[in-house]
Please model this.
Amino acid sequence: MSGSTLWRNARLATMDDAPACGVTERGALLVEGDRLHWVGAEAALPAGLRAGIIAEHDLGGALVTPGLIDCHTHLVYAGNRANEFAQRLEGASYQQIAAAGGGIRATVAATRAASDAALFAGAAARARALMAEGVTTLEVKSGYGLTEHDERRCLASARRLGRELPVTVRTTCLAAHTVPPEFAGRPDAYLDAVAGWLPGLQRDGLVDAVDAFCETVAFTPAQVRRLFRAARALGLPVKLHAEQLSDQGGAALAAEFNALSCDHLEHLGAAGVQAMARAGCVAVLLPGAFYFLRETRAPPLPALRAAGVPLAIATDHNPGTSPTLSLLLMLNMACTLFGMTVQEALCGVTRHAARALGLDDRGRLVAGQRADFAVWDAVRPAELCYGFGCNPCRRVVFGGVERGP
Ligand code: NIG
Ligand code: FE
Model:
């Protein structure tokens, strides 16, 4: 036997006992390889397991949570859109800027012009900032390349992040982000092309899921349906940017395809809520984009709660609508702007975020799960939602190995 490591004298927020956010006092985690072998009050640790301990860390009573999971990011791109932020402050809307050729397409031009090395370096710096706040798993979408070559480059950069940094990376192909200039006025032809790229991207191990932007400034539900058929025919799970700026019925459509998640959802209606509940689809709420676009209509939290839809929270990091690199700030905003409880918010960046990525081996501190956890300079879980602009994360363990960001 290789021996195990004991992390002791912790206050454990295992996130395993929803809806109550319980804490195990004087808790201990026994780690073997990259897995949690045993979790509980240290006094209950079986003597037989103690015998195999080869290293021990005293956490001094610190709070320990599962490693955080950022289940919606657009981390790979070049340039920034501070100029559009300035334009919006002077009265232009996000949709107007997009219609005038800015928005996503501005970032597409910058991304296409960037080298692989520059794309990777930018994404790695962003990933490290997220990791410094306890993020151990993150999703990265493509969507700023919009040619087969450039989407492939962006997805390959995301895969390289997962190889070269300790964080786990799940990749999502969001080639259906907007219609690129080469296909102006021909969205259906573009989506046919995208459907044709998927088998090669899948064959090369570059894509874990397929996403689309269903919106007046992007694709219609009928168009998304065709793309989702192609994805599901390959066995790829789908996700959707749905009901962000208007109610397009995207969530109900995604639910038909058993989507892992529908994301944004400020304009989600009752039918969409019910369809998501029936399909077991996670609602990923993105308070950063809501805040940055100065939206006033929050996602329908009471209806989502009543229907039992699992709620997740993510940064949606992207240069246009959510240039944040703080998942902790999103916890705070989900509570203050959307009215989520501490328990809901913390489930939203742990167990429910894992589910939004189709992962069942993480997001809770229980035996058998991956040994991904974060150690905080905090006593109560509420402190992680309460502060903003501060980072109480002290140590991060990725698959049993402590690593600095
Ligand atoms: O998640 N909604 C679509 N995609 C991004 C924004 C992309 C951009 O403006 O660059 C989002 O908010
Ligand atoms: Fe997004």
